[in-house]
Write a structure and sequence with these properties.
About 10% of the residues lie in helices and about 35% in strands. The chain has three helices and 18 strands.
Length: about 325
């Protein structure tokens, strides 16, 4: 009887264990998430016109079918960030030759919304798709066998996109699957399935953050922030102003965005907090102080940006400059 009881217990424990994943994916981008690249949007599980990401949050848009891995600016794109195969497979389709920035310049990308891209077939009906890659960067061709981590090309700005990123899309037997919970796009965001990412991919759901921050000598133009994330490392004493800026992403209504700027003598130049009145995919904020008297005191100046939600710290990012 004791042996039978132990057998029954083992069978029960086995039935409660999580089933083995049908497939696992590594990161499709060769960058450090949360530092040099960021997840901007997730698969939309909302029904009808509603928008719900994997965790029932607003980090998506209506009908979005993939995960967007974003770069902070165009300079990062131009430096070259690799798109890599998320799993072993065979290339079943590619496209190259689409200009970067066509959509933002007002040109039609109808029928080519993915831009330059690659599609890979894996076992058991799984397919991954990689979109918006850099012009002339696609490094594989149809029929190539690829291994996980192999370079496919570079993150770009081709197709229907307003910022440099990789749109990573997963299908199983032609049905869109969310890799963050392993469920179909038609499933409710509360289904709480099992993520398809490998343990060493270091990919997890995030609640928003700060892409970049810097200190400049005049109010920044948002176009410049998106182009190169400007920041002055050595500040002239006679500069007309000292301005600290930060570029946030995934901010929600009621979030508190705070900017602080302190000088080498401990004097506060800026301490400003603002409450978001609506949810935004990205938001740039800045503030500072004009020069007075003979100029800026010598020493280091520190800017600190924070994002808080319901009183909880979500993200922080710093920037500093030196007045010699």
């Amino acid at each position: 009887m004791k042996r039978l009881a132990r057998t029954i217990i083992l069978l029960c424990l086995t039935s409660l264990a999580k089933p083995a994943l049908a497939i696992e994916f590594g990161s499709p981008v060769d960058c450090e998430l949360g530092e040099t690249c960021f997840i901007q949007q997730y698969v939309d599980h909302g029904q009808g016109a509603s928008v719900r990401d994997t965790h029932c949050g607003p980090r998506s848009y209506d009908g979005h079918k993939g995960t967007d891995f974003r770069l902070p600016d165009l300079a990062a794109m131009q430096s070259g960030v690799n798109v890599i195969a998320a799993a072993d497979g065979v290339v079943v389709g590619t496209r190259d030759g689409e200009a970067d920035g066509a959509f933002t310049s007002g040109k039609s990308v109808k029928g080519r919304e993915c831009g330059n891209g690659v599609a890979i077939r894996h076992s058991d009906g799984w397919i991954t798709q990689y979109c918006h890659m850099l012009l002339d960067s696609v490094a594989v061709k149809k029929g190539d066998e690829v291994s996980i981590g192999q370079t496919l090309g570079l993150i770009g700005l081709s197709g229907s996109t307003e910022f440099p990123h990789l749109h990573f899309q997963v299908t199983k037997d032609k049905e869109i699957i969310d890799p963050f919970d392993g469920t179909a796009i038609s499933h409710d965001c509360k289904d709480n399935g099992q993520a398809l990412w490998t343990k060493n991919s270091d990919i997890h759901y995030n609640h928003g953050g700060i892409m970049s921050a810097g200190i400049v000598d005049a109010p920044p133009d948002y176009a410049n922030i998106k182009h190169s994330s400007p920041s002055i490392e050595t500040f002239a004493r006679n500069s007309p102003a000292m301005v600290f800026w930060a570029h946030f992403y995934g901010v929600e209504k009621h979030d508190v965005l705070t900017l602080k700027l302190t000088g080498p003598d401990g004097v506060t130049l800026l301490d400003n907090s603002q409450v978001m009145t609506k949810t935004r995919a990205a938001e740039m904020r800045f503030g500072g102080k004009k020069r007075r008297g003979d100029g800026w005191n010598t020493g280091r100046y520190l800017g600190s940006a924070t994002l808080r939600r319901n009183g909880k710290l979500i993200a922080t990012r710093n920037a500093e400059t030196l007045v010699p």
